[in-house]
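User:
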Amino acid sequence: MMIYGATNNPLRSLIEEIRALAALGFDYLELCLDPPYCSPEVLRTQMVEIRSALNNEGLKLPVVHLPTFVWLADIYSSIREASLDEIFKALDVAVEFGAKKAVLHPGYLTGLMSFALDMGRYYAASSLSMILERSADLGIMLCLENMFPRAGHMYRPEEFAEVLSKNPGLMMTLDLGHANIRAPKDQALNFVKVAQGRIGHVHIGDNNGQEDEHLPVGAGKANLVAGLEAVKASGYDGTITLEIFSADRDYLSISLKKVKEIWKNI
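Assistant: Predicted structure:
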């Protein structure tokens, strides 16, 4: 059964975020495990209060978003190792919260790595393998997210076809907003095709096709209806997280209503 969630803002108190998202009618929180307020170290000091807030508000926590601003394919081994350590700490706290899915951004191929793509892909693949192994040991489904051209890789369907074939336990987070950035119009549909039933999670946010703007649904140019139609036709019926980052959260509430209506009518 499809359930609808939203991400917290790690620059705000998580307990306040839980109350705000529950008031907007969401089923669950996708916990972004980023500093300053949502690093594993900080969350462990508030475990009792957080669990109480989730329970009181009736908000589930089935999905976490592993740290975003880490460098899993960096040219410096020390930076890669530190980044992996942050991911592993995040996975450990995800288990403590009872999460069953974890979203992972692939290592970014930027800086010097943009001139050494083969090396960067090797490091990214090595990091992914270690994270996948740790996730499996913890009983968490790892869902690798499709990116956009500025990330350097993992924004084309054929790249996902390859990585999924090489990693049998890996699933995909299909980000319909990312699939609209500097991409062909049928990009989201092609991702669904190459996933071959291995979509484990979905992100939704709108944009104008150039940058990852996280606009309200309908405010940009992404064909979210076609994307959701392809997802539904694939048999997916799980978690959909809205990543709408407007300062006015009325737009998040409106987007939730729109997505529910789209899903119902396709």
